[in-house]
Design goal:
Helices cover 63% and strands 2% of the residues. The protein has 195 residues and is mostly helical.
Amino acid sequence: MLSELITQLNHDCIEHGYRRKKWWADQLKIPPLTLSHWLAGRQLPSGKHALKILSLLNQKRTDKKTEKWAQYLWDCYYQHQPLLTNLLPDIILNILSKSTLDSRTLALLSYFVKKYSPNFEMPEEPNLKNRLGWLLESSEKKVPFKPIKSVPNQLVLNLPLSNTAKKFLRRYQTSTGKKWKIYDCPLAKLRASFL
């Protein structure tokens, strides 16, 4: 199992090329040399690191599936195709589960929520629940649940998150974002461009 995980990690580093090892080292909070030892088979990651690697690889697989659903929504919008409204809640939750999204995709989700008023099943995962609450409130819909305060602030925007970026995002976080513990951007103007 551990050797298969290292093989997947090595494949990911090769697939993404230059600086991917640094990215992994930063995510795992280890020195890059330690990662090199793992990839060369000289050392093995601890259980804690193995779980984190597995979690990040699973998130990458989820993100790939999510991109297909986002493309489906864009195709429906641009080509004026009928939308499978009964699947819309699942599609939106699937897209919201992606680690980060661009602001136009978030605005598109908000547009579809405002237009179709889908009924969502309550997600169990706290971060996803807060993201859904934020999206509903940003779409001017009534939210039937309260924010989960115990989760840390999360970033939904596809931005590099340095300390300077965190300070900037905190300063420009909307009141809805503060309520739902999300570093966000206002969606109203972007959503209006879809009408």
